[in-house]
Amino acid sequence: MKAKSIFGNSSSQAIAAISQAIQNGFEPTLAIVFMSIHQDRPALCEFLSAHNIDVIGATSAGEFVDGQQSDGAIVLLLLNIPRSYYRILFTDTHGQDIAAAAKAAAATAKGLFNNPAMILCSTCISTEGHVYDGTVLIHSLQDGLGKSTPIFGGMAGDDGTMTGTFVFDNKQSTDEGFIMLLLDHDAIELQGTALSGWKPLGKIRTVTKAEGQWIHTIDDQPALDMYLRYLGQSLQTNELADKDIFRDDIGLYHPFLSIDAGEPSLRTPMEVSQERNAIKLDIGIPEGGQFQFTLPPDFDIIETILHNAAALKENRGADADALLVFSCFGRRSALGPLVEEENEGLHKIWKAPMAGFFSYGEYGKDANSDHVFHSTTCSWVALKENIRG
């Protein structure tokens, strides 16, 4: 399998770069596309379709490609994978039960490949403000496929506007749904992991009153009051009034570590209500659910992630034809310029063409769990074609 990474500040620039890349005998079958909501998706997809290139894509909250990070741009990987090794499955779940749709997709995957693996992208926020339940999605997929099935990917972004995210293929897109690159795992090997770096703080807490994404009481105490005591501060008027300020300045730095069902995963505070003394999370924790407060990662988290990637590569004697990275939008806020060092460090370790984007949630396997839904995490996966004799 050969791969080439592409960057463009506009659809026309990306198309020009693709045109150059497919010269000299390179005939890609597949494009994995991450692009700003403000870019011309139809124009790019039409061009790729005209060249018989299949598309799996997601909108982004920032993009990165070999040695370059951008905002509002387009990145993609072109791959010449034999079509017998993959299928693209697009699912619009408007008006559907996510669990049922995911189980149907899992059945399709099992019907196509004896040993499937997948790259998964889902929406996060619809244009009507509905938040997609990534936990239900990946759990339902695993119910149908088995917990050992590799699943890596991310939730689409929208340049940080929270106005609507999209996944798409050559001819269709949706703001409520998911798209899968189903792979024959016997033919395409996947190596990857998901790692956060946020550290649990203090005792385990219990949500004692909740409504959807809103937490009202923790250990029978008002949720907002307890959160502020943990932070050791009070909220300024602008942080209460502007949910973007609260999310970017506080919530992304101090997520909750949900520990239900033995699957630790981060939940980001997105908004507060002083009137109700409550906190709204990106993905809710139900009544009776348990969690811990967290401390932001030390700057050595970058070294930890890169060390783990290098160790995995060495221990398994692995190599890569291509690399995909799904890095949470919150890491960019919390780690600043170090997040670029993190992404480029992965690229240097695997020495393969790379593309990735800043996402609103991540799918992948960490050291302590099966493949689950994450927040504030870096999830990466290296792809390698197995040469068949």
Question: How do the strands and helices of this protein lay out in sequence?
Answer:
Elements: E1 3-8, H1 11-21, E2 30-35, H2 41-50, E3 54-59, E4 63-65, E5 68-70, E6 74-79, E7 86-92, H3 98-112, E8 116-122, H4 134-145, E9 151-155, E10 167-168, E11 173-174, E12 177-184, E13 188-195, E14 199-211, E15 214-218, E16 221-222, H5 223-231, H6 237-241, H7 243-251, E17 256-258, E18 265-267, E19 269-273, E20 278-281, E21 290-295, H8 301-315, E22 322-328, H9 329-335, H10 338-350, E23 354-359, E24 362-365, E25 371-374, E26 378-385
Parallel strand pairs: 2-3, 8-9, 22-23
Antiparallel strand pairs: 1-6, 2-6, 3-10, 4-5, 4-23, 7-12, 8-12, 9-24, 10-11, 13-26, 14-15, 14-21, 15-16, 15-20, 17-18, 17-21, 19-20, 22-26, 24-25
Helix pairs in contact: 1-2, 3-4, 8-10
Average pLDDT value? Answer: 91
Biggest beta sheet attributes: 8 strands, antiparallel
Number of helices: 10
**How would you classify the helix and strand content by structural class?**
alpha+beta
